[in-house]
Amino acid sequence: MRDKSNSAGTIVDTSHIIRLLVEKALYIKRLTPEIENGINEELTRLGHISEVDYEALELLMAEMDAGRIQLVSSV
Question: What is the pTM assigned to this prediction?
């Protein structure tokens, strides 16, 4: 099953969760524990990473290295 409900009851295509989480981190310019845990949980669940997800994570890491995304310990 690739679809599941999020907290708002909206159906989310789980094949895009990593990209959505990266997009959220880029938008708010912070990598929160919740976003990081969500990415890790999805990677663990899938057991692999797609090329597109890898590129999204690579972009997130590059933005963090450049100082444009802040790693925060709590929201």
Answer: 0.78
